[in-house]
Amino acid sequence: MKIPPFSIEQFFALYEFNTPYILCVSDCESMSVGEILEMSGSSMDAFADLRLGYTESQGGVEMRTAVADLYPDITPEHVVSLAAPEEGIYLAMRALLDPDDHVVVLTPAYDSLLNLAETISGNVTRWEIQPIDGKWEIDLAQLEAMVTSQTKLIIVNFPHNPTGFLPALAEFDKILDIAAENGSWLFCDEMYRGLEREEAVRLPSAAGRYGRSIILFGLSKAHGLPGLRSGWLIIEDETLREEVMNWKYYTSICPPAPSEFLATAVLHHHHKFVQRNRAIIRQNLIIADAFFARWPSLFTWRPPQAGSVALVELHKPSATRYCHQLVADAGVLLLPSSCLGYGDSHIRMGFGRENFEQNLGQYERYLSKRASGT
Fold first, then answer.
1. Which of 31, 48, 87, 157 is deepest in the core (most CB within 10 A)?
2. Is 202 exposed, middle or buried (0-12, 13-18, 19+ CB in 10 A)?
3. Do residues 165 and 143 both lie within one domain?
């Protein structure tokens, strides 16, 4: 069985570690192991004494309890700890889908959310987010027409990567209703949850609200710890959870002990880590708003409602050619929407890093030189 190329990761493999001014990453500002231990009040001695034996396949009780505490009406038994958040997508798709099962996927989407479903089921309908003046929106009537009693799975991602869209509570409730009315499973990628521009608009998780939901979350985005590779699924249905665990025995078997130790320390101080990165994003979006106001002929700016990224319309014939040339000419990296399966007229920009202003400054100097003909 072949699977389509993982376009995003192939693009980053070309440039991520050799381009000096990166403006398109989806994660937030990271930190060292020492900083994690200090911020969480954990002991370096305890970390140094950690034994590197096998861990519990579903995840240690302390970590799963810390995860469950993030959700109302969720218990540690509902939590499946992962060796990486990406593993959770693979396990869920393998456990749920058979050939010809109908799947509806909110697009544009991270490659694995779409490509794994298409490869396994071969029967995917794309529910595409829509750009309107100044923002993005979803068409719930369109979703209602797509989903039938034959729809096995609906896949959504809120806050949305790459647009930064966040549905209103009534919209999200309608998605849950559509899934329930048709007996569909609902896979909710919540990797950017916690990074709302205003905390008051945070959606409740589908966990505890819809029994046929599968929730993906982890520490890569909102917590700024992608190198930890720590994530989890929330699965309330016992039968599905057992099927996911059986697939897990064929992949990672169990989470790495160092990652689980550090993840547990972070989760005990979850809000401290997330608030740090929300503050960085908030400041960077002020800078971005001013930048895009200065370049209206080149971009259409739809500010994100949540998350650490935005999808920006680029007034050029090909975003792909533009991004490759930008690396060569200025050492600046943007991600073209062609890597997201969304045409070739947008670029993704990320706002979670402390060096955003510096990197954007390099980009604007390049634009200014081009505009002046120098």
1. 157
2. middle
3. yes
Q: Are 159 and 301 contained in the same domain?
A: no
Cβ-contact 164, 285 below 8 angstroms: no
pTM to 2 decimals?
0.95
Residue-wise pLDDT tens digits, 225-242? 999 999 999 999 999 999
For residue 142, pLDDT over 80 is answered with yes
Residue of 111, 114, 60, 54 whose CA lies nearest to 252: 54
Helix (H) or strand (E) holding 357: helix 356-372
121: closest CA among 151, 97, 92?
97
User: Comparing C-alpha atoms, which of 138, 295, 96, 273 is closest to residue 194?
Assistant: 273
Mean pLDDT of the chain: 96
Task: Using CB atoms within 10 Å of the CB of residue 249, give its burial: 0 to 12 exposed, 13 to 18 middle, 19+ buried.
Answer: exposed
Please give the residue range of the domain that contains residue 22. Answer: 7-31+271-365
Are 211 and 279 members of one domain? no
Tell me how far CA of residue 371 lies from CA of 169, 265, 266, 290, 367, in angstroms. Answer: 43, 50, 46, 18, 6
Residues contacting 32, CB < 8 A, separation 6+: none
* Residues 144, 195 within the same domain: yes
Residue 264's H or E segment, with its range, is helix 257-267
Question: Can you tell me whether residue 311 is helix, strand or coil?
Answer: strand
Q: Is residue 1 part of a domain?
A: no
Contact 110, 157 (CB under 8 A): yes
Q: Which residue, 252, 270, 288, sits at the end of a domain?
A: 270
Domain total for the chain? Answer: 2
CATH of the domain at 60: 3.40.640.10
Alpha helices in 3-81 (DSSP H): 7-15, 33-40, 44-48, 61-68
Do 262 and 285 lie in one domain? The reply is no
Torsion of CA 141, 145, 147, 150, to 10 degrees: 160
Q: Are residues 160 and 289 in the same domain?
A: no
